[in-house]
Write a structure and sequence with these properties.
Helices cover about 50% and strands about 15% of the residues. The protein has about 500 residues and is an alpha+beta fold. A hairpin with a 2-residue loop joins strand 1 and strand 2. The longest helix has about 60 residues.
Length: about 500
C-alpha cells in the first residue's frame, strides 16, 4: 500500500511541475512582458507629449498633436517594437488600446478615443490607479480586465523622483484590454518568442533552470512526505478497525497540527467519549437491574412475609382473648405478639430501604424529601431534613441517595432511633450529606467487616467517585454518618 502511494506521489509531482514549466510559467512571464509593453507605450507617449509642449510653465500641446494612429487596427492589440500601437478611434469600436494626455489634475488634453474619454473632462482613471502616481497595474470594469500604465510628463529640467512634483506638467496614460497576449496580441507562444528580447528574458532562463533542478528534489520530497503520511494513515485505519471490534481503549499517537494530526486527535477524542458513554451505559444497566431486583424483593416481602407476620399477630391476639387471664400461656403469647410487631416494624423499614426512588424524574432533593416523609408517615420516626436546593450530577446523585437510605434504615432497624437528622449542603468544592440519629450506637473502632455489608458497599461506592464515607458512633451515644463527594 505504501509503495503504491509513493509511486502516485512521484508521478503527481512530475506532472504538476511539468505543467508549470510548459504552460503556467510562460503564460505568467508573457503577462509580465505585456505589462512592460503597456508601460513602454505610456513612456513613449509622455516623451511625445513633452516634445509637442509649447508652454514654458505648463502643458500646452500643439494644435496638430494627435494621440494614436488612425491606420492602426482598433480591434486588435498590435505590438510596435517594445511598445504597443495606439489606434485613433473617432467613433465606436471594440475595446482598443487607449492613450490619453492629461494635465496634473487628470483633465484630458488629448485622447485616442474621444467617445470614451472626451477632451476637456476629467478622465476618471483614478478608479483604476487609485491615485495619480507613476506606475502600472491591472484593473477591472464590467467589460473585462485591462492593463494600465501612467507615466509623468515633465519639463526635463529636474528629476521627478528626487525633486518632487515641481517639474510635473502632465500625465501620459495608456490602457490595453486584458492582462496578456490572449487578449489579442497573439498566443502564448508569441509571447514566449518576445521574452528573450524583453527584460524578463534572463529571469525566464534562470527560472527554467531552477525548475529543472528542483524536479528530482520535488520528487524526493514528495516520496518522503507521502511515506510518513501513509504510515500514519495506516496506523489510524488499524486503530479504527480495533475500535470497531470492541477495543474501546484503543488510541493512536498524535503528531503535530497538520491535517492527519487533527484527524488523529479527533479519533482519540471520539474514542474517549464513546468509552465514557459505554461505561456510563454499563453503569446505568447495572443500576437499573439492581433497582428492578430491589423492587421485586420489596413486592415479595410485602405480599408474602408481611402478610404472614400480620396473620401470626392476629392469631396470637385471638388466643390471648380466648384464654383465661391467669393462663400460663398469656406471657408467651404476649412475647410472641411483641416479637411479631418488632419484626413487622423492621420489615416496613426494610421495604422503605428497598423502595425505588424516582430520582431521574424528580431530582435528588425531592427524592430525599420523599424518603424522609415515608419514614415519618409509615414508621412514626421523626426525620428532620435540612436540604440545600443544589444539583448533584450522575452518578453522584445516586450514591448520595443510597447513603441516605442506608443511614436512615440502619438507624431505624438496628439502633431503635426515634429522631433522625438529615442534612445536605455544599462545603467548598464538595457536596456533603450528614445523617445523625439518637439510637443506641455501636463501637465504630471495630473492624470494617463487622459493620455489615451495606456500609461497606456505600464506602466503596463513594471511593469510586472520588469521595469518602466516615462513621462516628459510640454505644449509647447515637451515630453520625458523613458522605462527601467532589462537586464537579
Amino acid at each position: 500500500m505504501a509503495a503504491s502511494y509513493v509511486v502516485v506521489t512521484a508521478a503527481a509531482v512530475l506532472v504538476v511541475e511539468t505543467v508549470a514549466i510548459v504552460s503556467v510559467l510562460p503564460s505568467l512571464l508573457s503577462q509580465l512582458d505585456y505589462s512592460q509593453r503597456v508601460q513602454a507605450t505610456a513612456d513613449l507617449l509622455a516623451v511625445q507629449a513633452g516634445q509637442a509642449n509649447t508652454s514654458a510653465g505648463g502643458l500646452q500641446l500643439t494644435p496638430d498633436f494627435v494621440v494614436g494612429d488612425a491606420g492602426a487596427d482598433p480591434n486588435r492589440v498590435t505590438p510596435a517594437g517594445n511598445a504597443l500601437a495606439i489606434p485613433y478611434v473617432g467613433g465606436k469600436a471594440n475595446t482598443p488600446t487607449v492613450g490619453l494626455v492629461l494635465d496634473p489634475q487628470g483633465v484630458t488634453l488629448a485622447s485616442s478615443f474621444p467617445l470614451r474619454y472626451p477632451v476637456g473632462r476629467q478622465a476618471g482613471i483614478d478608479r483604476a490607479t487609485a491615485k495619480l502616481a507613476p506606475g502600472a497595474g491591472v484593473a477591472k470594469r464590467p467589460d473585462g480586465p485591462f492593463t494600465w500604465a501612467l507615466a509623468p510628463i515633465t519639463t526635463g529640467k529636474s528629476d521627478l523622483g528626487t525633486k518632487g512634483t515641481i517639474d510635473l506638467i502632465g500625465w501620459a496614460y495608456v490602457e490595453a484590454p486584458g492582462v496578456g497576449p490572449a487578449s489579442g496580441a497573439g498566443s502564448w507562444l508569441d509571447g514566449l518568442s518576445l521574452l528573450p528580447k524583453s527584460s524578463v528574458g534572463p529571469l525566464l532562463q534562470t527560472g527554467a533552470l531552477l525548475l529543472l533542478l528542483l524536479l528530482p528534489l520535488g520528487t524526493l520530497f514528495g516520496v518522503l512526505t507521502s511515506r510518513r503520511v501513509v504510515a500514519r494513515l495506516e496506523r489510524l485505519a488499524a486503530a479504527t478497525g480495533d475500535f470497531a471490534s470492541g477495543r474501546l481503549e484503543r488510541r493512536v499517537l498524535e503528531h503535530g497540527e497538520d491535517e492527519v494530526g487533527r484527524l488523529e486527535r479527533a479519533f482519540n477524542d471520539m474514542a474517549r467519549r464513546i468509552e465514557a458513554m459505554s461505561a456510563e451505559q454499563t453503569r446505568l444497566v447495572g443500576e437499573n437491574a439492581r433497582t428492578e431486583e430491589r423492587a421485586r424483593i420489596a413486592r415479595e416481602l410485602h405480599d408474602s412475609i408481611s402478610q404472614d407476620l400480620f396473620s401470626v399477630s392476629l392469631i396470637a391476639g385471638g388466643l390471648q382473648r380466648a384464654l383465661n387471664a391467669d393462663s400460663p400461656l398469656q406471657a408467651q403469647l404476649g412475647a410472641m405478639r411483641d416479637t411479631v410487631d418488632a419484626t413487622m416494624s423492621e420489615m416496613r423499614a426494610l421495604l422503605l430501604e428497598l423502595r425505588p426512588a424516582l430520582l431521574d424524574e424528580r431530582g435528588l432533593v425531592p427524592a430525599l424529601e420523599d424518603l424522609c416523609t415515608a419514614y415519618q408517615e409509615r414508621l412514626g420516626v421523626t426525620v428532620e431534613a435540612r436540604l440545600q436546593p443544589l444539583e448533584v450530577k450522575p452518578p453522584g446523585d445516586h450514591a448520595v441517595l443510597r447513603v441516605a437510605q442506608e443511614g436512615i434504615a440502619n438507624a431505624v432497624r438496628h439502633a431503635d432511633a426515634r429522631h433522625i437528622r438529615l442534612r445536605l449542603a455544599r462545603r467548598g468544592d464538595r457536596t456533603e450529606l450528614v445523617v445523625t440519629d439518637d439510637g443506641r450506637g455501636f463501637d465504630a473502632e471495630r473492624p470494617e467487616g463487622a459493620h455489615g455489608l451495606g456500609l461497606r458497599v456505600m464506602r466503596e461506592r463513594m471511593r469510586e467517585l472520588g469521595g469518602s464515607l466516615t462513621i462516628s458512633s459510640r454505644p449509647g451515644r447515637g451515630t453520625r454518618l458523613v458522605a462527601s463527594l467532589p462537586t464537579s
